[in-house]
Specification:
Radius of gyration of chain A: 19 Å
Order of helices and strands of chain B: HEHEHHEEEEEEHH
Number of strands of chain A: 3
Shape of chain A: elongated
CATH class of the largest domain in chain A: Mainly Alpha
Shape of chain B: globular
Mean pLDDT of chain B: 76
Distance between the termini of chain A: 34 Å
Oligomer: heterodimer
Structural class of chain A: alpha+beta
Strand content of chain B: 25-35%
Low-confidence stretches of chain B: 1-22, 137-148
Mean pLDDT of chain A: 81
Number of helices of chain A: 5
Number of domains of chain A: 2
Structural class of chain B: alpha+beta
Helix content of chain A: 55-70%
CATH superfamily of the largest domain in chain A: Winged helix-like DNA-binding domain superfamily/Winged helix DNA-binding domain
Chain lengths: 103, 160
């Protein structure tokens, strides 16, 4: 999942700065798709890039994340997503049960 | 097809500023399914594992002791190790109401309380979910663990 990858990139950068190549090798995806995720994070202002010699080094920019970190908002979205998943689950399960009973 | 026919609404019951003070959120969602289908999905561990996960394709693993005083545990898979959510059932009224405590990294392993009510409607079932005793923003961010939750928020933040 792409979101999981971006979150993992941020989690990694929360520990220390990292080179782009280093990040790409840490995830089971191509350098190309790693770069795409990084660009999204850069556009969101969450990650900044500096060029050191031939290497591009990424660091975390925590400011926007602190703004986003409204606690109640987190749980509101958490449960909204869970209830949406619950809905998907019961409807898929019912369709599956129907198919099974027809066989 | 069925999915697109399913009607659903979801909303926070109060303005965010008011919510932050009380440490309580209320969500309502109407789902085109029976009360039984929905109620059971909370207490059957196999079902719970399939929908109680953070959008990953990998299911969570869940353990449920469905009786008052019994405990549950959901391990949500995530890179860097699973997220553990757990608690204890306080009220189990079949097809009506579920009350359980909820602890996780995001609550700093402090006890919070979740109430899920099921109301049968013509169009399906309305679920009213109340999560209370949440740590307020200040308390939450005063801990280092607030960082983990901030990472969790990111997905939503990016999608806005």
């Amino acid at each position: 999942m792409s979101d999981a990858t971006r979150r993992a990139i941020l989690a990694r950068l929360a520990q220390s700065d990292a080179r782009v190549t280093e990040l790409a090798s840490a995830f089971p995806i191509s350098l190309n798709s790693t770069s795409k995720h990084i660009r999204i994070l850069e556009r969101a202002g969450l990650v900044t890039r500096s060029v050191q010699g031939r290497e591009h080094v990424l660091s975390l920019n925590a400011g926007p994340m602190a703004d986003a970190a409204e606690w109640m908002e987190y749980y509101r979205r958490f449960w909204e997503d869970r209830l949406a998943a619950l809905e998907d689950f019961v409807i898929k399960k019912r369709n599956k049960d129907k198919r099974r009973s027809k066989q | 097809m069925t999915q697109t026919q399913a009607s659903s609404t979801s909303q926070a019951a109060a303005a965010p500023s008011a919510v932050a003070k009380t440490g309580k959120i209320v969500l309502k969602r109407t789902i085109a399914a029976t009360v039984e289908e929905l109620f059971d999905a909370w207490l059957d561990p196999e079902s719970l594992a399939q929908w109680m996960h953070p959008g990953s394709t990998v299911p969570s693993s869940a353990r449920v002791d469905a009786r008052v005083g019994g405990t549950f545990e959901v391990l949500m898979p995530r890179e860097g190790g699973p997220l553990r959510h757990h608690g204890e059932y306080r009220v189990i009224e079949r097809n009506k109401k579920l009350v359980f405590t909820w602890l996780s990294h995001a609550t700093h392993e402090k006890e919070t309380l979740v109430t899920v009510e099921f109301h049968a409607l013509d169009a399906g079932t309305q679920i009213v979910l109340t999560h209370e005793q949440l740590p307020d923003h200040e308390t939450a961010m005063g801990h280092n663990k607030g960082w983990t939750a901030a990472l969790n928020l990111l997905e939503e933040f990016l999608e806005r």
